[in-house]
């Protein structure tokens, strides 16, 4: 497995380069955001470990740009940063990060999180899910409505997949947070609502009928409702 580390602090970058290499990964290192984005965009990496406070381009900009590039939407990204405020963690996840680990960190935990993300895959029993005119090819991670391809980030796909495979079931925000982000969100954050809005803008706004519905005070459900 190939991992790209984007880290400008020399000691931390060298430590990750050596340690992840010893853990069995093939590791490349970029020491600023611009070079890191270029390397990630060129492809071939299975996962990116990304710092926030980077020269030239910060980590937020790198991730935002990467998610908009062809092939960049599906690369798992772990933020590894000293920024430990709740709003920073929320921002990172809202931008499409798959995990967020705060410095100082335990190297064993980082490796465990990397391996968890690399192992994660769609359930085999749901190769194709159809709801109305929407089709989700789980193995190819492709989504379409009315025959039109819909491009989703890795996190948006995970959110849609959860809603679709449990279609008709109302899922609370806490269930969505734990299943899609593997984390418990504080009750006053709007990460789930923001993610649903982004998903609807791609999946529902251009089409009829709507498939993602809100039940106030309860959560969200994906289903085809009778007109």
Automatic annotation (TrEMBL):
Record's keyword terms, sorted: Cadmium, DNA-binding, Phosphoprotein, Transcription, Transcription regulation, Two-component regulatory system
Organism of origin: Janthinobacterium psychrotolerans
Keyword Transcription regulation: yes
Entry protein name: Two-component system, OmpR family, copper resistance phosphate regulon response regulator CusR
Cleavable signal peptide: none
Organism domain of life: Bacteria
Keyword DNA-binding: yes
Response regulatory domain sequence ranges: 2-118
Entry-linked PANTHER family: REGULATOR OF RPOS (PTHR48111), TRANSCRIPTIONAL REGULATORY PROTEIN CUSR-RELATED (PTHR48111:SF41)
Residue stretches making up the OmpR/PhoB-type domain: 126-224
Gene Ontology biological process: regulation of DNA-templated transcription
UniProt cross-references to CDD domains, sorted A to Z: REC_OmpR_CusR-like, trans_reg_C
Matching SUPFAM superfamilies: C-terminal effector domain of the bipartite response regulators (SSF46894), CheY-like (SSF52172)
GO molecular function: phosphorelay response regulator activity; transcription cis-regulatory region binding
Lineage per the UniProt record: Bacteria, Pseudomonadati, Pseudomonadota, Betaproteobacteria, Burkholderiales
DNA-binding region(s), residue ranges: 126-224
Positions where 4-aspartylphosphate occurs in the chain: 51
GO cellular component terms, semicolon-separated: cytosol; protein-DNA complex
Pfam families in alphabetical order: Response_reg, Trans_reg_C
InterPro entries given in the database record: CheY-like_superfamily, CusR-like, OmpR/PhoB-type_DNA-bd, Sig_transdc_resp-reg_C-effctor, Sig_transdc_resp-reg_receiver, WalR-like, WH-like_DNA-bd_sf
């Amino acid at each position: 497995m190939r991992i790209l580390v984007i880290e400008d602090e020399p000691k931390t970058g060298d430590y990750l380069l050596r340690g992840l290499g010893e853990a069995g990964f093939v590791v490349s290192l970029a020491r600023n955001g611009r070079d890191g984005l270029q390397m990630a965009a060129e492809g071939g990496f299975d996962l990116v470990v990304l710092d926030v406070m980077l020269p030239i381009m910060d980590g937020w900009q790198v991730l935002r740009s990467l998610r908009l590039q062809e092939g960049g939407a599906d690369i798992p990204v772990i933020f590894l940063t000293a920024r430990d405020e709740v709003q920073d963690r929320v921002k990172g996840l809202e931008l499409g990060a798959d995990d967020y680990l705060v410095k100082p960190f335990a190297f064993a935990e980082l490796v465990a999180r990397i391996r968890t993300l690399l192992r994660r895959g769609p359930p085999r029993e749901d190769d194709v899910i159809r709801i109305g005119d929407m089709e989700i090819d789980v193995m190819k991670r492709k989504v379409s409505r009315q025959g039109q391809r819909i491009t989703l980030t890795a996190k948006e796909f995970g959110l849609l997949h959860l809603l679709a495979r449990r279609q008709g079931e109302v899922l609370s925000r806490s269930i969505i947070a734990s299943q899609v982000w593997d984390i418990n969100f504080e009750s006053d954050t709007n990460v789930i609502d923001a993610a649903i809005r982004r998903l609807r803008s791609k999946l529902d706004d251009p089409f009829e009928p709507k498939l993602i519905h809100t039940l106030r005070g309860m959560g969200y459900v994906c289903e085809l409702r009778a007109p």
